[in-house]
Write a structure and sequence with these properties.
446 residues; mainly alpha; Rossmann fold; Tyrosyl-Transfer RNA Synthetase; Double Stranded RNA Binding Domain; 3 domains; 3-stranded parallel sheet; globular; binds tryptophan
Length: 446
Amino acid sequence: MTAMTNKQNSAPQRFLTGITTTGTPHLGNYVGSIRPSVAASTGVGAESFYFLADYHALIKCDEPARIQQSTLEIAASWLAAGLDPERVTFYRQSDIPEIPELTWLLTCVTAKGVLNRAHAYKASVDKNTAAGNDPDADVSAGLFMYPVLMGADILMFKAHHVPVGRDQIQHIEMARDMAQRFNHLYGEHFVLPQALIEESVALLPGLDGRKMSKSYDNTIPLFTPREQLKKLIAGIVTDSRAPGEPKEVDGSALFQIYQAFASDQETTDLRKAYADGIGWGEAKQLLFERIDREVAPMRARYQALLQDPAKIESILLAGAEKARKLALPFIRDLRHAVGLRPLASRQAPASPQRIAKTVLPVFKQYREADGRFHFKLLDAQGRLLLQSLGFDSPRDAAQAVKMLQTQGAAALAGLQSRLEPVADETSLALASALQQLTEPGPETGQ
Ligand code: TRP
């Protein structure tokens, strides 16, 4: 199912994704992100937002020249690959001052405990702990806050769908959570975004057969010159079978890369050639020609764009202007919503009835056909967050509910044997719901 055919309402569906500006695009980025995004951006009824996440780059990289160069190369790559800045909104994150402003508003509705659980941060803490170091050694507050900045990127433009790699799913869940919590406190302002994982997009192997990734140093730069491309392809790992011996396509990095560029017919032909014992040298030549056929016209455009950074700059500034037409009025509403208001426009305080109307997550207790007593926790939208196993008496069930209401997530560990396991996707929403229940909020009249 593609999200574009899954229209939830008649409003155009918005797609948004960011690219961190720390490296040079490689073939894996092209196949996994640039090519499908450019294709999706030409779809009817879709509105696409693509941006260079240069504030995010500062979290990982303290070399100013590299950030500038990477911003230039990534922008030029997307444009060379056919992204039409007239059809989409293509901008640089740091040209939108409303994004850091929104980051702060979201920071104030994000539980610190939820950020403690972010994979990237937790991985650093685990590594430090394993090495016997201070858990937060070499962890910047920027790394810790990364998901909130990303939440602001997404929520600012009311994106419905966020095409990302699997490693980013948790960040989208967190953005959803922030949106829910903000809407709960201040009224419906944000769209709840969803991660969009393109199952059909293959993970491209790199030169050594592992996933192509800068961190493995096994990449083929997308727009490397023709001669260099040929040299790099010659270095792809193969087995030692001689020409004439049949070859295996399974596990062959060369075959997988070919498949990502070839038509079905071309793939079938190469499969047959493998069975017929094509020599590795010849197979590499085929792969080189196939990639170069697709990349060469883009490479020429890329080189021309790199020669004209002023043109790229003006494209990005025009994109920022388009983006800010949405961001400016929206942040104005949000400021008003949280109470950052001109003093002359003071309104009477909200009536107690209005305050009482805000919806909280609820516990429901009930008895099953087998006579045992259960409870569950539903969020304000009725989504199931937590489900108990059966208790012998209603008192036992009520006592467990009471513990969760008073101690929040801290009570979960002790109740573990009495609860259904919590799915990974709901654990953040659960933590935030429990926090909402345990803390004094406007609904208690404070
Ligand atoms: N964190 C993303 C990555 O590393 C990049 C990113 C920043 C992003 N902000 C975003 C992706 C907003 C999607 C939406 O891949």
